[in-house]
Amino acid sequence: MEDVQMNYHYYCYTPTLQTFFMTFLLVYLLAYFLLFRDWGPRARPFASSCFISLAHGTPATLLAVCAIYTEPPRSFASANTAAQSTVLEFSTAYFLIDLLHYLVFFPHDTLFIIHHVVTLFVLLTCRYMVSRGAYGILVLLVLAEITSPCQNSWSIAKARRDVAPAANKYYRFLSPRFYAFYSVVRGILAPIFVYDLVAFYASGLAEDSIPRWVWLSWVVVMGSGILVSIIWVLNNWKQWYRERSSDAEKKAS
């Protein structure tokens, strides 16, 4: 009987935060020392960060969707399931590695460092402090990471557009499509979901399970992140329009 239990636990092994951390570290080192070794001193770490973001974004989206829909319907204050906790650990490991990346290579990029710190606060308090509320956080994780393939390939192409014609062509092709997709997800779907989240917490239904200061801090982080995302994509739309106008003027002349 003991052998059966040991075999069961062996085959049901779930990766831990430490395992995910080491995995993302190896992916980062592979990108930095092999894939982008011939890139410049600034482009090399930037591209390595984009690469681990790619390695996180789509898997995190798929894992979160599975964790959400393989369980019975749950509320925003329900206890975290084992699958949901695994996704939280997966994303925590990624943000820890990327935070270290920014502290080492881009310590003056305050906005990204703050973003990663507050995101880690949400993930860690949800996973280890209250052990509740993962359902809502994972839905927002899906909305945040579903644009990851477009965003990171766009970022790498933008970094190389001045030295690689193919990268510039891809950047110009992808930009309006990426901006449109990003605008719908971050500018429409995410705010609607956060509104529902705030309405639930404000109703007092979570008071007995999640401390008020915790969910209030989550809402502030989520709302601020969405606002910054909207400002970011609006600025990119303006830049795209200026470039289109400049191209039109050159053709006319």
UniProtKB/TrEMBL annotation:
The chain crosses the membrane at residues 20-36, 48-70, 82-104, 111-130, 136-157, 178-201, 213-234. Keywords: Membrane, Transmembrane, Transmembrane helix. It comes from the Eukaryota. Residues 42-245 form the TLC domain. GO terms for cellular component: membrane. It is found in: Membrane. The keyword Transmembrane helix applies. The keyword Zinc does not apply. It is a multi-pass membrane protein. It holds the Pfam family TRAM_LAG1_CLN8. This is TLC domain-containing protein At5g14285-like.
